[in-house]
Amino acid sequence: xxxxxxxxxxxxxxxxxxxxxxxxxxxxxxxxxxxxxxxxxxxxxxxxxxxxxxxxxxxxxxxxxxxxxxxxxxxxxxxxxxxxxxxxxxxxxxxxxxxxxxxxxxxxxxxxxxxxxxxxxxxxxxxxxxxxxxxxxxxxxxxxxxxxxxxxxxxxxxxxxxxxxxxxxxxxxxxxxxxxxxxxxxxxxxxxxxxxxxxxxxxxxxxxxxxxxxxxxxxxxxxxxxxxxxxxxxxxxxxxxxxxxxxxxxxxxxxxxxxxxxxxxxxxxxxxxxxxxxxxxxxxxxxxxxxxxxxxxxxxxxxxxxxxxxxxxxxxxxxxxxxxxxxxxxxxxxxxxxxxxxxxxxxxxxxxxxxxxxxxxxxxxxxxxxxxxxxxxxxxxxxxxxxxxxxxxxxxxxxxxxxxxxxxxxxxxxxxxxxxxxxxxxxxxxxxxxxxxxxxxxxxxxxxxxxxxxxxxxxxxxxxxxxxxxxxxxxxxxxxxxxxxxxxxxxxxxxxxxxxxxxxxxxxxxxxxxxxxxxxxxxxxxxxxxxxxxxxxxxxxxxxxxxxxxxxxxxxxxxxxxxxxxxxxxxxxxxxxxxxxxxxxx
Length: 586
Ligand code: ARG
Prior knowledge:
By secondary structure, this protein is α/β, with parallel strands linked by helices. The protein has helices at residues 4-18, 43-51, 55-67, 89-101, 131-149, 165-177, 200-216, 218-233, 236-259, 277-286, 324-338, 353-366, 401-415, 424-444, 456-459, 467-483, 500-510, 512-521, 526-545, 554-577; strands at 28-30, 39-41, 72-78, 82-87, 115-119, 153-157, 290-293, 296-299, 313-316, 343-346, 374-377, 383-384, 452-453. The strands form 4 sheets. It has a 4-stranded antiparallel beta sheet. Helix 2 (43-51) crosses helix 3 (55-67), helix 8 crosses helix 9 (236-259) and helix 11 (324-338) packs across helix 12 (353-366). The model has no long low-confidence stretch (mean pLDDT 95). It binds arginine.
């Protein structure tokens, strides 16, 4: 189905064509001046240059053609040649009814037939999840749902960090603590020898300890580097040990992500790319791209018109170890083989921009993916504390994700009145959803590339652009529909006149697909968050201004009930795209 502005554009395009002008001039957008009109078309200004005519001449002719259409209540020309449009109540209602009966709720399937692999989350084994992983998970999950709603086959991969130096650090630390473990001995047999289980508590303590030690103890640091290379090149004991603690860590990460309603189709690790490194190397060699540089192997990716320095990509270091770029490129080989995606979207901190630019260039030179497949880095900004600096714990450390979620939960819990809940469990469940919704919405309402300030107290407020406000709106509608003595009709009565507040609400509901298209094309969930907020705020005004259950005129009352139900349907659709769960009472 077409978006609302696209549908209106069709009428305008036809009018331009009927007047003998290029129909492409008929694009309609939301008005910049909502005080004057709802929609506008500025095509006459462009047409003026094309046809060497004054814009008002073109606009007036087009207005004449549009004036009698029943879809518009008002069509006017404003100097120097704007076409101002106000839609008719009956057309607005019929359009919204159509979005209700449409199986996709009126969302255009602009990614139909496309396979999109979304690389998000990017948690690291044995290291605590921090707020950088929070943003990736929240934004990535939403982008994945948006892509799927646009018709794509959307595949999420957590791309677990299980191949870097942290692995060597953990291995060496465990070796010091448990030298008797069979995995450390020369004659380790992966078929027979068992690896002792490591608890998540121990694992969480081992990494920070080893990391701190490596900074002051050069021997330990060298040993950890060596262990990392050995792991990557297939040391059987280290492999077996790493597999064991990776599983423990993964289970823990899964739990935290589940709390955020984040789920991946695949949990491939960087290590799974290991087996594709030889293929990557032969591909790069075949294309004559691999160069020696002080014992390392590199690929030059700079271009003549680069304005900033573009260093070569290091594929193998002189000690033979793989680095981040090697892994990402080998992962492309793997993804091509397993999925052959049309797109790979990387939802990763924008500070990694150079890395992605380098590897994307390298992939283009080497042709790792199918012709026409595209990689995109969907970078995001930093989450800052109220002081405008990267968010920290009170003692200045990196805030861990679990702590952040627990703090949000406690604050949410204390904001909920026990009298409103059947029992304490119900109140706790609500606090959980409310806290997660608040944290997520606060992130998603900002364009992903921007930094933003994280402020618990503001996020939990039931006013303004907050997750709490969205949930609150949904509970209001739910309770209103439950209190109604009659069922809400499925669709609106297109002959029913509308109040100003009803009209605003309907416009916000009709406009969802326009926001959706922007969210898809810009890979930006903030448009979805914005659309949900717009509906919530229009609903508040409607709820405040118009009688609903107490309206005596049956026709109006029924129509308002239908409007409530349609509003709720759209709100649930949007919150689901944001991966935010709603509640019944608050
Ligand atoms: N594990 C990495 C980190 O914590 C993020 C991985 C992002 N994805 C990728 N394909 N490089 O920074």
